[in-house]
Amino acid sequence: LVLVVDFGAQYAQLIARRVREARVYSEIVPHTMPIAEMVARGPKAIILSGGPSSVYAEGAPAIDPAIFEAGTPLFGMCYGFQLMAQGLGGTVSATGAREYGRTRVHVGLPGTLLAEMPAEHNVWMSHGDSVTAAPDGFEVLASTEVTPVAAFENVERGYAGVQWHPEVLHSEHGQKVLEHFLWDIAGCRQTWTIGNIAEEQIARIAAQIGPDGRAICGLSGGVDSAVAAAIVQKAIGDRLTCVYVDHGLMRKGETEQIERDFVAATGAKLVIVDAEKQFLDALAGTSEPEAKRKIIGREFIRAFEGAELKVLQDAPEGAGVGFLVQGTLYPDIVESGHGAGTSTIKSHHNVGGLPEDLEFELVEPLRELFKDEVRAVGAQLGLPNVIVQRQPFPGPGLGIRIIGEVTRERLDLLREADAIAREEMTLAGLDGDIWQMPVVLLADVRSVGVQGDGRTYGHPVVLRPVTSEDAMTADWARLPYEVLEKISTRITNEVRDINRVTVDITSKPPGTIEWE
Ligand code: XMP
What is its quaternary makeup (predicted)? Predict the structure, then answer.
């Protein structure tokens, strides 16, 4: 275990991921955690992350000097580097010179940390103050034009640090720096491999649920719930029941895919709730986006709870469904305040004859994992690519891709158009190049066209191909004209009632990815 101390900047998660890429398990802890508590967890090393640009800045978080007494190897980056320098008796000066972004670093003495790295290379910096003198016992390894001490190490104590951000992609050899520290200076073993992750999670979940417990898992068709279910299935076998609510808003073939591929890969018990009529009845007459989302959310809970009851009734006498599986990821846990332990949620049932409130204990097999690890574990457990490499798809499904009222006929139109677009993207080998490509039906718009000898008066669809890292921001994807042409020709020829295909070329912001 390596602890990454979070000083409130955006870097801690990225550092934790990079440590795991070096096959060493890492967790993020807040800088407010007492040192004794960190040490009690027995970390092999502690990493001090970036943070505010100056240790002298007003309100800049400090570090308890007790950390230097603990005997645990330490690595400081950027702000963490300055904290180390300051705390160990070096000098941090407000030189007035700043370095932001790409910076050339000169390696004077490679030492262990920078071994086998070019004497000159580019790294990513973001700092105001500089370390002007290293603490006693430290070797200075690198400098830049304005920073005399840009990297140092004290191998005997297991200490090292760099002024730059080795975790970001723009820092050349960044991962190597981290690996030299973890493997060669701190002596961490490379045990965090995909096979081990899967095994550990399965063992952990088996212990949590126990030999008699039963669990239920809602499948959405997405990666996270599928991998979570696969792990729990391995842990408790057919004491897990998966529930998939078919709200009729899925894309063409998706329900069948879950039914076929997921079950074939995992052998899990799957209950499919056919709730199409329930959802369409509830959505009838509603066009306002937020209202649609609320209705879909509400009906989803109803359908899922109905299924829970049924599973409960079918379970052997006295064997209640005690656990609810959720696909919560590590970033969700970190963002909600480093929560530890399990929480209990309540599920309210309003159906006669059964207890008012059933308590479920949450099972979160992915709560220690990042998204890329989830995909790798899914593949390891035998889930097919169509599931583990699936592009994001919103919970409310096609319901928020029909602009206007949602009806069965409109859904069928959109499903056909969307299936063509997806097929052509896959054929062109473009799936890996884009984040996702919603196809949106402008159901209340009609335009005049001509087909054969006749006038048409049909609906337009909008293709919304985007590139993105995390969906927070996005750019429109520059798809090749030939692919756009093929999609346009096929949709207008093959889907009756759609006579125009347009492409959305708005970035996010100002547009969102979805239209509603
Ligand atoms: P927007 O439209 O906000 O979408 O730019 C950002 C990302 O989130 C997806 N999305 C959703 N996912 N439930 C989900 O699970 C939702 O209600 C939802 N709305 C949007 C969207 O597909 C994109 O990837």
Answer: Homodimer.
